[in-house]
Amino acid sequence: MDTQHTNARPYAPSRNDWKKRSSRPRTAAVCGGVVHDNTRHTTRFTVIGNHLAQHPELSLLAIGLGVHIQSLPGGASVDIRSLAARFPEGTTRIAGALRELEAHGYLRRTRERTKDGRVVTRTVSCNQPGRADAPEEPKPRRPARRESAPGPRLLPAVPQPAYPAPDLLATALGVLSGLRRTDPRLLISATDAEHLVPGVAAWLERDLTPEAVHRALTTGLPSELLHRPAALLAHRLAAQLPPLPPFRAPGAPSVLHPLQNCDVCDRAHRAPEPGTCGACRT
């Protein structure tokens, strides 16, 4: 009774066996690409559009940051310092990613003054940029220029920021407006300030505080009369532009090599390739 017949026909698979086979995920070697092993979410999930997750122009950091912001509850802090404390990318890369999202309509940031006189930044996250019912941001009207007013003299070119976000440009304008408090000779016109604001914004993108930019523009000025203070500021912004700070990873993880059997004593040891252990080599 215990003799096995190798030429016997195998039993027919049951219906449960076919269900088990069909429910197994197909490997990437068969499909030649990614394989999704999906489970339906019932709690703690966020609906993200493919226009953000597969955006053709946004960087990977901006896409991930946009997904993170859309998953946060209302009232959560999404300023640069809070995000830098949460992620290891640093303030410079996070600020650039926020400006990417703002340039493509996924964020709207405006500066508002509270009742107690403080200036705060109001951030609105948009999960569908460009929809018809989205509120339009009010744009300040520029004063009309008189026909008889002479045209502005040409100023040296200034650096341009990677992403000229409104919040960044407003901070740069505040830096320029405060220069005359340190040196009254640095009083500039609104037209000159409009030309210099992108240059100051390019400095702020390099992890410099507004106070540091103020000192760089007001330290070591000549003692004689400044005939063209805006031209001097434009020259300093271009000639003394600091480099971008290097990206520093939070710490490289230690490499854990696989277990190998020693060719001499057959004991297990960790090494990148098979061979002898340290005791046998010595």
Entry keywords:
extended; 282 residues; 4 strands; two-stranded antiparallel sheet; two-stranded antiparallel ribbon; 12 helices; mainly alpha; Arc Repressor Mutant, subunit A; single chain
Structural description of this entry:
Strand 3 and strand 4 form a beta hairpin. This protein starts with 14 loop residues before the first helix and ends with a helix. Helix 7 crosses helix 9 (190-204). It is built from 12 helices and 4 strands. The strands form 2 sheets. A two-stranded antiparallel sheet has the order 1-2. It has a two-stranded antiparallel sheet with strand order 3-4. The longest helix has 15 residues, at 190-204. It has helices at 15-23, 28-31, 50-53, 60-71, 80-86, 91-103, 166-177, 179-182, 190-204, 210-218, 229-239, 278-281, and strands spanning 107-113, 119-125, 259-261, 268-270. It is 37% helix and 7% strand.
